[in-house]
Write a structure and sequence with these properties.
Elements (H helix, E strand, L loop, with lengths): L3 H23 L4 H8 L3 H8 L7 H11 L3 H4 L7 H13 L2 H14 L1
Helix pairs in contact: 2-3
Amino acid sequence: MRNIYYDNIMNIKQSLGKKIKEKRMQLSLTQEQLAEKIGISPKSLSQIELGNNFVSADNLEQICLALNVNVKSLFDFDNDNSKEKMDFIINKLKHNPFLLNKIYKIISIIE
């Protein structure tokens, strides 16, 4: 049985992947071209765009540079229940210092 945490992570991965793909296509780049620019395989990029894999902080920074966007724009999702999700995330971060540290690293890239 899946839980809300799993569903939220999957939604974030899929939404982020969709945004990356949209930005890549706006620039008329192929997966191969973007993958080469950021130093990963086209298959890895495909898995990120499909929402199967989450992008690392280092690769996220490279993707933003290659697509000429800021990290915030990639995480700007339309959520109807964002307050509920935010409360859930905050609660999880309070009890997971390792995850909090990962989030901190991603946020530090944004600034």
